[in-house]
């Protein structure tokens, strides 16, 4: 009977040791997986930052290109408008100058 009890205790000890080893191995695997997940998450965040940075830079370049295009279009429209209205503007300037000259002349006469 003592032998059976002794064997049971030894078996329990052996099972306890196996369980302890299994827990340690599980903890080790868990740490390894957590470290790997952390590294993957860090890599993914870095790649996301790079993608965002590239996208922002491309958007800035596109915005600047559109801005320059619109400025050039406005310059061309201004030049075209001034060219089309050159005679009218010249006549208006001449008329204003004549008014000023005549007003000064009339002041001098008085």
Please, could you describe this protein's structure?
By secondary structure, this protein is mainly α. The protein has one domain. The chain is built from two helices and no strands. It has helices spanning 2-84, 86-109. The chain starts with a helix and ends with a helix. The mean pLDDT is 90.
Instruction: Tell me, rounded to a whole number, the average pLDDT.
Output: 90
Counting DSSP H or I runs of 4 or more residues, the number of helices is 2
Question: What's the helix-strand series?
Answer: HH
Helix content: over 70%
Number of domains as seen in the coordinates: 1
Shape: rod-shaped
The counted number of beta strands is 0
In percent, how much strand structure appears in the residues?
under 5%
- What structural class do the secondary elements suggest? mainly alpha
Radius of gyration, in Å, reads 45 Å
Gap between N and C termini: 148 Å
Weakly predicted, low-confidence segments: none
The main sheet comes to:
none
Strand and helix map with partners:
Elements (H helix, E strand, L loop, with lengths): L1 H83 L1 H24 L1
Keywords:
110 residues, mainly alpha, 2 helices, 0% strand
In short:
Helix content is 97%, strand content 0%.
């Amino acid at each position: 009977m003592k032998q059976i009890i002794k064997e049971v205790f030894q078996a329990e000890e052996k099972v306890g040791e196996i369980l302890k080893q299994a827990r340690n191995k599980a903890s080790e695997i868990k740490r390894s997986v957590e470290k790997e997940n952390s590294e993957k998450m860090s890599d993914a965040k870095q790649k996301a930052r790079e993608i965002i940075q590239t996208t922002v830079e491309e958007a800035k370049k596109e915005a600047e290109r559109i801005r320059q295009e619109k400025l050039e279009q406005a310059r061309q429209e201004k030049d075209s408008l001034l060219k089309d209205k050159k005679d009218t503007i010249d006549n208006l300037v001449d008329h204003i100058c004549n008014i000023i000259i005549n007003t000064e002349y009339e002041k001098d006469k008085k």
